[in-house]
Amino acid sequence: MNKRTMLSLTLLALLALTPIAVQASQEVRVGGGGAAMSTIFDPIVTPLQKATGIALSRRPSTPANGLMDLVNGRVDLATAAVPLENMIAGAAKNGVTVDPAKLVKEQIGTNRTVLLVNPANKVGKLTSEQIKGMFTGKIVNWKEVGGDDMAIIVVWGIGTPGQNAQFVKEVLGGEKVTSESLESTNYAAIKDTVASTPEAIGIDPFGIADATVRAIACNPELTSPIIAVTMGKPSADVQKVIGYIKGEGRQFTKQ
To answer: pLDDT digits over 57-80, tens only?
Structure first.
């Protein structure tokens, strides 16, 4: 037997004894509202895959669109920081009728709505009266609440109806937001506008906040349950994701 043949046989033997560790990742597709995504699912992507081998494929949209994607089989789990009834009503407005009896809902966390200000703003705390006055247009300058002498610019999202409704009801006591507000679109756009505007103040999920803005607690505190919704009983992989979120993965979420 020549040396080349002996080397080939040795390599084959070593390969036979070496366990194959490479395994395709399992995937769970998640769709739904930005508040739930930024608070729960975005922060856990890497640690979840490391702990369970499951790769999250995220499809951020709105609570209603997340539910419609679930019904149409485009995602395995729909998520939102609004009640399931709101998701179903939103889908109905888009021509999709959803039978609630076919859905399984589970709370997986809590969303906090906070005030966002520019990092250059020195105001660190606001009373409920001050917040209400600012967002309704009765307080128009930051110096009235301990800040610098500059006009207050209220940034208001036109694509965040659930967040807006809760804020108007619980913080503004049903009063309308000032007509002088600066309209923005979604959660990310609100944050970006505040980050680039020293005079600005807006509201957003705490999960959206990053180093480009500073978060101030709402007064009173605004919270809402974050839910996971599946068609029927969750699959084994979806249940692993939910279990991870409610267990060791909670440390990575932005609640």
So the answer is: 999 999 999 999 999 999 999 999
Query: Which pTM does this prediction carry?
Result: 0.86
Q: What does the longest C-alpha to C-alpha distance in the chain come to?
A: 95
Residue with the larger pLDDT of the pair 1 and 25: 25
In the chain, CATH 3.40.190.10 sits at 26-111+225-252, 112-224
The three-class DSSP label of residue 129 is helix
Please give the structure tokens belonging to residue 51.
Answer: 């702990």
Q: Residue 94 and residue 196: Cα distance in Å, rounded?
A: 34
Give the contacts of 28 (CB within 8 A, at least 6 positions apart).
Answer: 54, 55, 56, 57, 76, 77, 237, 238, 241
Res 55 pLDDT > 90: yes
**CATH fourth-level superfamily of 112-224:** Periplasmic binding protein-like II (3.40.190.10)
Residue 51 zone, left/alpha/beta (φ > 0; ψ -120 to 50; rest): alpha
pLDDT tens for 190-212 read 999 999 999 999 999 999 999 99
Q: Tell the burial category of 173 from Cβ atoms under 10 Å away from its Cβ (0-12, 13-18, 19+).
A: exposed
Can you point out the beta strands (E) in the chain? 26-33, 54-61, 77-80, 103-117, 153-157, 182-184, 200-205, 214-231
Helix (H) or strand (E) holding 191, with range, is helix 187-195
pLDDT, one tens digit per residue, over 138-161 is 999 999 999 999 999 999 999 998
CATH of 26-111+225-252, one of 1.10.40.30, 2.60.40.1940, 3.40.190.10, 3.20.20.140: 3.40.190.10
